[in-house]
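Progress report, Aim 2. The chain analyzed during this reporting quarter is listed below.
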Amino acid sequence: MIRLSDCKQVRLEVDSIIKPFDCGDADPNEFLHKDSKNYLTELLAVTYLYEFGNDTVAFFSVSNDKIFYDEEIITKTLWNRFCRIMPNPKRMKGYPAVKIGRFGVNLKYQNCRIGTHLLDFVKMFFLDNNKTGCRYITVDAYRNPRTLGFYQQNSFEFLTETDAEMKTRLMYFDLKRFSVYK
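Predicted structure tokens for the chain:
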């Protein structure tokens, strides 16, 4: 069984050659093969690849985000409950986050816990020396039991219930859980 530590991490560049990858879902596949370099050149997202042999084992893309109060998305009561974790003087209308835009594990390597290890890496990547000053990781998770269950098992929570019937659900992870500044 392959481990994430067996893979070579590569930051995608414009001249990178993307090795074969298929996660069984057309959207992440198409993003990686057709859109990821455009997102890079337009400064919209950065993609990281994990390669082993002749395969791309997994990848993720990240971009800046924020969690903010929008009365059409989140109720005032829910927002107040969300903000209670912050000390009163630090409560704001928005909190810095990083968004996982796309995330996928090659079908050949699924069910090896690569996805969980990759999420743990992302969490630690943004905590290490607090590179960006972000508090949360967000993801618009596809609304299917496998995907939502995966993020829930990795301690992501739903931000709101207003998207319960939409194609994706907004989920977040509080990086403070891993922070040395608890």
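The domain at 4-177 is CATH 3.40.630.30 (Aminopeptidase). The two ends are 36 Å apart (CA to CA). These observations will guide the mutagenesis work planned for the next reporting period.
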